[in-house]
Amino acid sequence: MTAIHVLGLTKRYDELTAVDDVTLDVGVGEFVGVLGPNGAGKTTLLEMIEGLRRPDAGTVEVLGEAVWPRNPRLQPRIGVQLQASSFFERLTAREQIRTFASLYGVGAATADGWLERVGLGDKADTRVEALSGGQAQRLSIACALVHDPELVFLDEPTAALDPQARRNLWDLLSSINDSGRTVVLTTHYMDEAEILCDRVAVMDHGRILQFDTPAALVRGLDAPTRITVAPGALTAAQAGAIAGVGEVGEGPDGVVLVTREPAAVLGALAAGQHLDGVTVQTGTLEDVFLALTGREYRA
Ligand SMILES: Nc1ncnc2c1ncn2[C@@H]1O[C@H](COP(=O)(O)OP(=O)(O)OP(=O)(O)O)[C@@H](O)[C@H]1O
């Protein structure tokens, strides 16, 4: 079943085409990421899918319903994460989420349960202004989920968090999807998209350049594998003599074997008792972005 059906979606701001003829489908239960640098058009695309912004061209169907003009039947079925800056001022975390809950006719006990679920039980009496960046992001996610929507939109949920806080939030985001909800998030972070998402739409200059699983995107690159053998285990000459090895380099971490036949090369290393301390590196989404756009990824 399709959760989101987008056809030929376009949005212009004067001369600028922020979203340029985007077509995509998202299945029910999928976790989809929209990945792209600043200004790629991610937020504009999401806002049109959420029914918050009117497209100049194209159509959006969400859970089988048209989103524009505003469709009140959809509101209880979708959750949109607000930026932390849009909290009601001077409320505590508990008051904040209970206020959201009451808008949807959801009881206080359920609201309080969500505070616990996102790890904010001990911050219930803290005013939203006094929460840390990570706590505020978790509260905004809880507010988006409090009415148990089928489809959740998160716009850069881990922006401005330190690496540890981002990782903590990843567990929460995975659990949202594990319970069967469809999740769409935008992100600047390649690693985040790679770890969390079933499929990733790589976006730049308003266009979706590719939309596939992270593994398929990387496979499509046809990038060679780099196998690094710990220093001292193997000379460059020995490495070059292994069948299937293309280039050989020497770096601080040892001898680097570049190959398109990693299984054969690893087999040869195993046979020679050289597997200790071996690292294997394939392409990443960063390489995908570089290959698609011809430039380095700059968040
Ligand atoms: N209301 C607006 N009026 C004019 N231009 C806009 C408006 N909103 C966005 N833009 C422009 O449209 C382009 C796409 O912006 P958008 O916010 O969708 O990108 P984004 O990928 O979400 O960026 P970021 O990662 O920085 O949030 C940008 O060049 C932006 O300056």
From TrEMBL:
<dbReference type="InterPro" id="IPR003439">
    <property type="entry name" value="ABC_transporter-like_ATP-bd"/>
</dbReference>
<dbReference type="Pfam" id="PF00005">
    <property type="entry name" value="ABC_tran"/>
</dbReference>
<dbReference type="GO" id="GO:0005524">
    <property type="term" value="F:ATP binding"/>
</dbReference>
<dbReference type="InterPro" id="IPR017871">
    <property type="entry name" value="ABC_transporter-like_CS"/>
</dbReference>
<dbReference type="InterPro" id="IPR003593">
    <property type="entry name" value="AAA+_ATPase"/>
</dbReference>
<feature type="domain" description="ABC transporter">
    <location>
        <begin position="4"/>
        <end position="230"/>
    </location>
</feature>
<keyword id="KW-0067">ATP-binding</keyword>
<keyword id="KW-0547">Nucleotide-binding</keyword>
<dbReference type="InterPro" id="IPR050763">
    <property type="entry name" value="ABC_transporter_ATP-binding"/>
</dbReference>
<keyword id="KW-0046">Antibiotic resistance</keyword>
<keyword id="KW-0813">Transport</keyword>
<comment type="similarity">
    <text>Belongs to the ABC transporter superfamily.</text>
</comment>
<protein>
    <submittedName>
        <fullName>ABC transporter ATP-binding protein</fullName>
    </submittedName>
</protein>
<dbReference type="InterPro" id="IPR027417">
    <property type="entry name" value="P-loop_NTPase"/>
</dbReference>
